[in-house]
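Problem 12. The chain below contains 138 residues. Write out its predicted structure in token notation.
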Amino acid sequence: MKVIDLARRAGETPEVVRYYTRIGLLNPARNPGNGYKRFVDADLVRLRFIRQAKALGFTLAEIAEILDHARGGGSPCPKVREIIERRIEENRHRLEELTRLQQRMESALERWRGLPDGVPDGHTVCHLIESEEGMGTH
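Solution.
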């Protein structure tokens, strides 16, 4: 299979296939006659795996780690569980941070509703933002 054929069968773009090849996630053989990259069905399986792993939130570095572990003959499943557990905690933490940010933004907007617009005067840029100093930024 050529790059375009693999991309089409996997629902990816040729650029994605080329990028994954460049960073080592895909390792096509070379056609001895012309030196072009030649993909096989195993590359299609791997590309679909990469898509599924990305859809679950795995990074390309984590996917490479999983693929390396699988290539070594051992089960990558314990590593996959470890990574996803860590990612769930990271996401939970990020969601908490985003919730706090959302609350600060909504509170600020509410406080600003009755304030007049200001013009920079050399001492201030935007008095709305500057009025928020020390107001729940932690």
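Discussion. Residues 76-138 form one domain. Students who got a different answer should revisit the alignment rule from Section 12.3.
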